[in-house]
Amino acid sequence: MTTEHSSPTTLTDMLSSQSKRYPDKLALIFKDRRWSYGELQSEVERVANGLLRMGVKKGDRIAFFLPNCGEFLFAVFAVTKIGAVFVPLNPQYIAEEAEYVLQHSEASIVLTSPELLPLIDSVRGKLADLKQVIVTGAGEFAGALSWDKFLAGVAGAAPSIALDPEDLASITYTSGTTDRPKGVMLSQYAYAFAPRMRAQGLGWNENDRVLCVLPLFHVNALCHTCIAMLSVGGSIVLTEKFSASRFWDEVREHGVTTSSLMRTIPQILLALPEKADDGDNPLRLIVTLLSPEMHLRFEDRFKLTGVPSYSLTEDILSVIGPQNMPKEKLGSCGVVLAPQVHRVAIHDEEGKALPTGKAGEIVKQSPTVMQGYYKNPEATAKALKNGWLYTGDLGYLDADGYLYFVDRVKDMVRRGDENISSEEVERILNSHPQVAESAVIAVPDLIRGEEVKAYIVLKSGATPSGVPAENIWDFCKPHLSAYKVPRYIEYRDELPKTPSSKVQKNILRDESKQGGGQVFDRLAGQLK
Length: 528
Description:
The protein is an alpha/beta fold. A hairpin with a 2-residue loop joins strand 1 (26-30) and strand 2.
């Protein structure tokens, strides 16, 4: 592993350095609370001491079943300071999903909130490894410890515990769109190095304030937004969740200069009624991945710079666009950060490197690549091969080293000799004025191997009789090559989704095999 001697190799080193350098500088705003770097460090020390007092040892798993809150960030730094392992859970999990992750990770302590405690209580009897539940806030909780009581009488710096940069820091579970969630194991060094490289790549500094509206259980919010900003001495404005009606008020109220947004959020903001002061705000830079047209619209309306990005839970070191990215590169994810230790290549199905411009699987090498999937050697062996992380994403590199994401490898439709991107077809379908959302999958075909099938959810008030399949096909024809136009269309009231709102295409594939539903066949010109 390549490191920089003067740079921190653990989160403990990073926060300690920043609290000494900026003891009185604002580090975090959440609701009506504010913490300086010195106060943030003190909170971390208290939580670390509280966990040690409860008998937590190096390597123990501590689960976070929390909404966005200050305690989430305190606990991340405290858990990693004492060499334990944090396991973030999606607060939208249902009981069965939470039970699986808590059992699989062997979590001994769960940090949760009053509103989520009933769900933990409902599965607690099935969790053999669970010893204690800690609930944020004050008050009395049956069978659980309040945050106030957890920290009662705790003071002073926590004792130093020997940490190695390669020590396990977290197990983060993937959304599980294809099978049971897999626990991605990331090292202490991954959290110290990758967010810092991202912040530097974005040009963030101690004068910046980042608005975090994404959920902290996700690496985008935790690593790319919060830890990245702390790594350069800037300030975090943390919200419980995204609010379209409050977003610009929060930006102006707190002097926010930057944010990382999922692509749906810019679309929501663009859909708001235009105002004369839309461009009158301190926000100068957002990180998101949009179509070139949407990218330019967002920049023009709100007078800021948009920067694309690509990373994944299995390797949190980013590919990111330069702030002066040429317009002809819009649509790309940008170029690799830390190229001295970070490589991105494109491989074919046999693991051989493909030339510039040729699409294949995106593979990565970096010091922040996951150590593997927890208790899943088979999945680990499929993902980590010959020194490369196989991402499961399809893309290509251009002559200037810009990475273009095309699709998930498993989402490709291989029709004859042609590879069809489901995302490309979905983008066209979703631009239809009466389509709310769509999902495209491959279905078997005796002649061509696979054909394109689209599941379509219409907007409120629209009906299949009012927007017949012929209308959809006619709309696609000017935008897609004939072989890309869906052969099959099935209307749905809604699409199956994970708690993080990803479409579960595995369910659609299974349902397609079983038949049922009204399926319109373009080639037959009738119901299938």
